[in-house]
Design goal:
Length: 170
Amino acid sequence: MSTTRQQQPGDLGPEPGGAGAAPAVPARESPGVPGGAVRRLALGAASGIVPLARDFTRQALNDWGWLPAATADRRAAAEDVLLVVSELVTNACLHAEGPEELRVGCDGKVLRLEVVDRGTGHPSPRTPHRAGRPGGHGMFIVQRLCMDWGVMRTPGSPGKTVWAELAAPA
């Protein structure tokens, strides 16, 4: 079962060069993505941020050959990425004064997601985790689906970058 909206035939995310689209740019030796491609999407003034971030990521996955998926395992890996993007962006919307930028990078083995926000808090899974209760599952989901995740802060700058890494499908 898909955790994201059903994709319409020919729907590959935002149109290249269209509203909300950001071109691929070479990686700047970003942790987890040395020599890979990094896509950036400004989110600060956008509306419909979570679906926009998901569609942007879906387009990157398509461009990098993750989608359309040839096997159920590859489809599941892509859906995990889209779910983690949704959770990180939603968390920034709810708890961190909104996201500023989404970065999606892939070096062929690891896909790294980064959400830059203005918040001062530190995300963490709620403990104890209460399955079956509404809300509070975002960072638990991120922790379960990702190889690793964390928070980077830039000294002297407000906000933070919450990052997550997932293994590329075999």
